[in-house]
Amino acid sequence: MKVLQRLLAKPWEHAGEMEGIHGGNVAGRPPGRTGLYVFLGVVTSLFLLFSISHQMRSTYPDWTSIAEPGILWFNTGILLLASISLQLASNAALSGSPRPVRNELLAASVFSVLFLGGQVYAWKLMLDAGLYAAGNPANAYFYMFTAVHAAHLLGGLWFLFKALGTAYAEPHDTALPGRIGLCATYWHFLLLVWALLFYLLLSS
Amino acid sequence: MVAAVGILVLVIGTLLFHFLSPWWLTPLAADWQSLDDTLIITFWITGVVFVVLNGFLIWVVIKYRHRPGLKAHYEPESHKLEWWLTVITTVGVIGMLAPGLWAWHSIVTVPEDAREVEVVGQQWNWSFRFPGEDGVLGQVGIEEMNPANSLGLKADDPAGQDDVLVVSGELHLPLGIPYKFVLRSKDVLHNFTVPEFRVKMDLVPGMTPYVWAKPTVAGRYDILCQELCGIGHFAMRGSVVVEEEAAFDRWLDAYPTFAEVQEMAAPNVAMGQAQFAVCSACHGAQGEGNVLLNAPKLAGQAEWYVQRQLKNFKHGLRGAEPSDAFGMQMAPMAATLADDAAIANVAAYVASLPDFLPPATVQGDSKRGQDFYVTCQACHGAAGQGIWSMSAPRLSRLNDWYLVRQLQNYKQGIRGAHPSDLHGKQMRLVSGVLRDDQSINDTVAYINQL
Amino acid sequence: MAYVAIADRDHEQHLHDPQSFVTKYIWSQDHKIIAIQYSLTAISVGLVALVLSLSMRLQLGFPDTFSFITPGEYYQAITMHGMIMVIYLLTALLLGGFGNYLIPLMCGARDMVFPYMNMLSYWVYLLSVFVLLSSFFISGGPTGAGWTLYPPQSVMPGTPGVGGGIVLMLISLVLFIVAFTMGGLNYVTTVLQARCRGMTMMRMPLAVWGIFTATVLGLLAFPALLVSGIMLLLDALAGTSFFAPAMLSMGEESRHAGGSPILFQHLFWFFGHPEVYIVALPAFGVISDLVAVHARKNIFGYRMMVWAILSIGVISFVVWAHHMYVSGMNPYFGFFFATTTLIIAIPTALKVYNWVLTLWRGNIHLTVPMLFVIGFIFTFINGGITGLFLGNVAVDMPLSDSYFIVGHFHMVMGVSPILVIFGSIYHWYPKMTGRMLDDRLGRIHFWCTLFGTYAIYLPMHYLGILGLPRRYYALGDTSFIPDSAQAMNAGISIAALFVALSQMIFLFNLAWSRKHGKPAGGNPWNATTLEWQTPQTPPVHGNWGKDLPVVYRWAYDYSVPGAAQDFIPQTMAPEDVPRDVGSTYDGREGAHA
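Predict the joint structure of the above. Result:
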């Protein structure tokens, strides 16, 4: 509603009036966080469109349902743990205790890498079962979804590792809590996206 | 001032162009007056907008152009004016949209009494199928397609047995009867367009979209492909002939049903050999050709192509042009073959003749020819082997002098001039790539190396 | 306040750290340099596309005369021409070029909020251009599938460039989307977070509104192209069947089965239609500013203009299938998409009215930018109303895939934005270089471009009504196309050559005036917006000197009654406004309030 009110304002009136009128940074939100939200908006659009294409394509007669490897359940749990660890790291960073920050960041990194390893193993299981991408669109979607999600995770991992490095080298860097907070948001989002993709894979 | 005059010139020019332009809708040949009416309504509404808005723009530029002492009015907005403009615009939009949606409603609603015809597109030819007496089109599948069953009907589907197959780019339709065109593609996207019918729709592989039209004016019209479908897109032409129902029935009767095609006895090579005696006088006993008699080598050419050309000669699609002296010689020879069975027999015999490599006689820059051949190979294959599904005959190991002559004939409109020879028409279009005799020689020199 | 602190630190660094040529002009993180890099690259690749279009025109105009272009090359030319012009020229120039240059300056920021990412954005864009152009040099050449890249033909034999060309095209597009996303994050976040004190959203110039909204559209729409691109790439390389159905290819069954070509079209146009507005909205915004400055009058109906931009942005996501009326999709969709498409015409028409109403009762200085504004209004009216033909499903049917549509989209998406781009360059060149472009050459360039392009595209509409199909290498014999149409085609080609040549005047002007143009001063047009109030011209790294500007008013205080001058810069406090003798104006509110 506030937005609507602003759009209704007549800007040619009240020239010079400055009370309550500031630049863009009044929200007190660091630009990095806004940037992240915008980026997550882009990624949301990307995965939604992937999902819609999946929904459309899966109604065609040649679609053959597959039994996804059970390890995906395990991977999902691991990713959940990574997400929780990062939230804990973020909380610890805000309260200013470097030791738990380091431990939780390390845990999140390990869980994330483990998740990737688990996904690779799921690929291997699929290939061993003779379920190739060219064989059926259901297989193709499995490989594509997991690959794109992994790419999305790898992008985040770069920043997570940087934060981890800082947590060891300069634990009192004032920018650190902010960065860890961004990582935590990113990982929650990753988990959410994976939950959606996993649901789609299971349901078709 | 100059600016205002410039825009004025453009506006007047546009109006003059509109009223004087010789290019306008083709004469309507189907029952789609409603589409033309919507178009005309849109022209009037938008035409008024065009003149009024630009007229106002011109007036404003003249009246309020900068002069010393002039000061602009200060007015941030006028809600009243903006509301009025919104309302007027909305009314105009509804004035165009309503008849448009009304017309569209009749496009999506196929009349109950409409008959069906299937339009089959492929790179870069048209063919057609009528459902026969049961009014149902039989099932088809890509896996069924081969030279003998190019439309891919399933042999075990009873509904397909009486389907009439028109493996030709020429479609006939009876006057005054609504037809639903069921559209099928064998390969990529195509689009079925007859400008005089107004309607058009894409052919999508894996789907069967449709449009319908009721032809109302007799005549011959072009079928164009209007969805980019590869190198030969511009040469994918067909024709539709609208005629009285009696003439249409006669035309359709000449085409076989799927059952008839299947029952057709396998060609008799021995009988073909006997009939080939006439041919061998010029083409040689082994179909090896004779340059002195201007008779090309036949051995090695595909059966379906020999059949098609013999039929073309026999029915006057080829060799009827007075300037085609050698074709004129061939036409009466082909006429000695009594029926389709005889033609099939001869073709089968020709296909059984041993192939060999004829001597090269044409000189040319084969490197340059290779560049031209990129276009040819889209249909005839990279090795010039010919591809049945493209209706493209073999080019390699033919007499090169014959190739040169045929290319020249196409370019000069000597071959492919008959309106029903749609493959010839296609070659006429494509041979435009070879601008001069040198290019033809170069291309043939390259084909010699294949 | 945190931001100001960062900005000041940035500023200090600049003062104490004289930069080398390489860091200043090559690996630059300065938004202005990046803007110029984007612009020059886009214009260069645009010239390639221009040459391609000429080779097409020579073939179409004189089909029996020139032998240098074969059907395959013709289709490669139309594909590359279209893709380059839409994506690599217009999108890159309007957002990467204009967006980069104008957003921080017009919002009162020192730079984009993520300068390093901004620099990366340009370099990835450049890489995408190189990948795209490299397809000219591989065997088989670039793809000839048409810029829409419709499968299955784009990945099947029979289409030029089916081996490497299509793969390079898709990879290049993926890179472009990555580059655009990095840039786009910057533009959006900068507008949201880095405006200076006093710059509310509703005090922003419409150029920023247009670019901002277009960027949001781009960020949401480009993923659709990415999705379709990735899936098409897998169909081409990995043998999957997302889009490719069972087919007969070269006489044999293809390895694909079951895919849906229509699915690709939905994804492509879900990107493709917003893309039209990604190009149009920045042009709408920029033209609004140009018209106000050169008519010395506030933009008429500023609020309506903002609302129109926003509603066009929203509606543009529900009109995509009007590109697919004859695609074979469920024909009942036609009712919905025709309705939404004609609805979007209403806010668009309001924008046109408001530009003309801004001129009305103005004080119109017929400068070169103003000429381009007038030219744009004319061509946009023309292109807009032909859109009403094509958006209305029943009218579209006879016209679809004919030269009518070629005429329409070149008028609305080619000529109109290009006129805006030219107008803007004449307008902002003095800020970018400190010198004016030559006025006489500018006028010649304008009239040649306007009349020339109109001579190209107006006749195309009528050829299209006749039924001339687009994407035809040669027309050959038909029963319905008279010889006069071929003569017209030759005429169009001559006009195209003329237009292309007259662009040399512009390029010469750009180069020559850099050194020899009239010195411009800081604010040659007496404009109100922030970019004209920088302490230096051209602005230096950091833009604003020691203190960030403070904004006291909206961007359109022109010819305010009672003020001595006919413009009041946004940075001028009410008490500083010089008044007319005897006026009671207090510098706060317009007479209307």
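Residues 71-107 of chain C form the longest helix (37 residues).
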